[in-house]
Structure prediction request, 391 residues.
Amino acid sequence: MKIRILTLVLILFTNLISAQKHNIVNASLAFKNEEYVDAKKYIDEAYETESSSNEPKMWMVRAKIYKIISFNYSDLDDKAIFKATESHLKCMQPHPKKENKIIIYKKWDEKDVFNGLIQCANKLFNLAVEAYQEGNFQESLNLYEPIYKVIKLDDEDQLKSIKITTESILHNSYLAARALKNNELSKEFLQKLMDINSKKPSIYSSMSDIYLEEGDDERALEYLTLGREIFKTDQGLINSEIDLYLKLGKSDELIEKLSNAIELDSMNDIFYVIRGTCYQNRGDITKAIFDYNNALKINSEQATALNNISSCYLLQAEPIIKKMNNLSLSQTSKFKKLKLDLRSLYLKTLPFLKKYLELNPNDKQILNVLVEVYIKLEMYKESKEVKLKFK
Prediction:
């Protein structure tokens, strides 16, 4: 009797395994016949059953079914792209017994598996961008997550060629986390970007901003300093550092720090530019002009110095214009004197504006400033030429 019971159990067990493998066969046939609802039903049953859930053929069929669903019939399953990616990744795992082979190399060409995987990653990335644009920030983060595993397998850099990299995913994920106002997650993504030596200087000012929000001024300064050490000439970081020192009431400290740096390296134009900007921000225009001129002696194409020194001269013109407007009609001699002073300032400004625009010809705002300066100097021909260029 015991032998008979054992035999029945074995028969039932064998039939169960056979039935589950039959699900894989049915899913494959339904897929070939483009019956995707049935294909999904059968492969889901095979996936959810322990005896067939890790069958190599199951992963192969599931990858094919969910790839076509995610690309063409996403209304059948809103998680289809995740399932397609998971299945392709499983198919790409090393074979346990065959060296240099993937798990289902006999049933499905490795190149086809890999190409399907790349398509899935591209789809995930595009969906993540769309989700972010629509304000679905958590969904965007979820969609980016599986792509990291695909990048590790992309020895041919196919994803890199379409600008899908670890750096781009981390940066976009940071933006989503920031939009969610999740400071801890935002800092985590920024730190990972720093760890891979990201070429984005803004990650340091972004990290600084988060710490500043949290009231940790020292950490905020620390990250700006770290960023400035790596990206010495980045104007965004320079401005952020200056703004933070001023916000914290430490402009004197920054100027002292820069003065010490200039003593050690008097041929560094950036030090003069930053100190000049500090002076300009606190209204010490004469010292600012002095520093900008020093920067330009070292580097005649220092664009920030050219732009800032122009703005300094134009700032000096404002009180003169105010005085002229306040004069009575009888004060002609004073008016003429002030007009000469004003003309002198515009003439001083002119070469710096022109040089700056040689380096940045598409800066429309400065082109407009140059037009105005030419008009003030009654150089109408030159003003007209600049207007034509502007158009």
The first helix runs from residue 2 to 32. Residues 367 and 389 are 9 Å apart (CA to CA). Residues 5-17 have pLDDT under 50 and may be disordered.
